[in-house]
Design brief:
Layout (H helix, E strand, L loop, with lengths): L2 H18 L7 H18 L8 H20 L10 H14 L6 E7 L3 E3 L5 H12 L6 E7 L11 H15 L1 H12 L3 H11 L6 H4 L2 H25 L5 H7 L13 H12 L5 H12 L25 H4 L2 H11 L10 H20 L2
Helix pairs in contact: 1-2, 1-3, 4-6, 4-16, 6-10, 7-10, 7-13, 10-12, 15-16
């Protein structure tokens, strides 16, 4: 890397931070994070890269790139990517599953559905940042990537439950337990054949089957997706896969190195819903149990009255059954309100009920 590029990147980050800090956030945690990021940016600006050894320049540049990505997410315009209501819902969901939820700030940016913590080991990054620049962050960002055209759509929100499942999985290392147990079971050749053929046919690919590293990577990736699906299915039943079916049609039996085939994912979710015997589900449930958590069906049909302005939730399980109930009501069809209603009016009516119900529950 040319040393002058570090100074250039520092100036770009400084410009970005100057922009995002012009508008104050009502979230005190996010405002504190922005202020610390500004201090860090000023520290980057004092670096004189031409006098630094190449190796040290590379370290600074690697760290700076991470914070550039974080600063981009904090752009005030991104607050409209995820509705205020869904931020509250996701915050409530997070606090249900982890003890230190208050240290995480939920953010969003435009993009295909995904979730990121921005760095695989935030504590390590924070420690290095403190050592090198004397700046320490008290909070960590969780960023949801959401397609901009779905910003005010509550039907898509089932995907966010899947993405939150990825975070909970990584927080407790559920996937580590599951993959380790599977590798133990697959030491038996006959059991290995059954498990691969039933749940991980991608592992039969010649280029994967005889490459130990790739075999473990695919196994881990697929287990992560199954864990996230089951996490979401607790609250959304089979509707956790509604969006998946839509975007994958008609290739419903095609898997990749990162994702199981949708038909396999559907079978796992179906077995979970119907309490069918399934070794993958058993391993995932056991890992949750070992962490003092209960992976179980929590959804209930709230019997949405489309003529009402809002639903009253009695507890957070009912709150998190909202998306499931929206789908159930949608499938019943507009005939339950007015057969002459347009599809658009039916869709917007249900979305507005969701919007009002969440605002009422949280008093926002």
């Amino acid at each position: 890397m040319k040393k002058e590029l570090l100074n250039l990147a520092s100036a770009q980050l400084y410009q970005l931070c100057s922009s995002i800090c012009q508008i104050q956030s009502s979230d005190k945690r996010k405002e504190d994070f922005r202020q610390r990021l500004t201090v860090l940016t000023n520290q980057f600006m004092t670096l004189e890269s031409t006098t630094l050894p190449d190796q040290i320049c590379n370290v600074h540049h690697s760290i700076l790139k991470i914070y550039q990505q974080i600063a981009t997410v904090l752009d005030p315009n991104n607050k409209y990517i995820l509705s205020k209501e869904m931020r509250y819902v996701l915050g409530d969901l997070l606090s249900t599953w982890i003890p230190d939820a208050s240290k995480y700030i939920i953010c969003a940016t435009d993009g295909d559905f995904a979730i990121t913590k921005h760095y695989h080991d935030w504590n390590a990054l924070n420690m290095i940042t403190k050592q090198l620049y004397n700046v320490e962050f008290g909070h960590q960002l969780i960023t949801f990537y959401v397609p901009k055209h779905l910003t005010n759509d509550f039907f898509y929100a089932g995907v966010l439950y899947h993405e939150m499942g990825h975070f909970i999985d990584s927080y407790y290392n559920i996937y580590v337990d599951v993959t380790n147990e599977l590798k133990q079971i697959m030491q038996n050749p006959s059991e290995k054949a059954i498990i691969i053929n039933s749940y991980f046919p991608q592992l039969n690919n010649h280029n994967i089957a005889y490459d130990h590293t790739e075999f473990e990577n695919v196994l881990t990736n697929h287990c992560k997706e199954m864990i996230a699906d089951l996490f979401g299915a607790q609250y959304l039943e089979k509707e956790i896969l509604s969006y998946l079916k839509y975007i994958c049609y008609p290739s419903f039996d095609k898997s990749s190195n990162t994702h199981p085939a949708p038909n396999i994912r559907e079978q796992i979710v179906s077995d979970f819903i119907n309490d069918n015997n399934n070794v993958i589900i058993d391993l995932i449930k056991n890992s949750f149990n070992n962490n003092g958590l209960n992976l179980a069906k929590k959804y209930t049909d709230l019997n949405i009255d489309p003529s009402a302005d809002a639903i009253t939730f009695n507890n957070n399980d009912e709150l998190h059954s909202l998306i499931y109930s929206l789908w159930i009501t949608y499938y019943k069809g507009k005939v339950i309100i007015n057969p002459g209603m347009s599809n658009y009016d039916f869709y917007t009516t249900l979305n507005q009920i969701a919007h009002n119900s969440i605002k009422q529950y949280f008093g926002i």
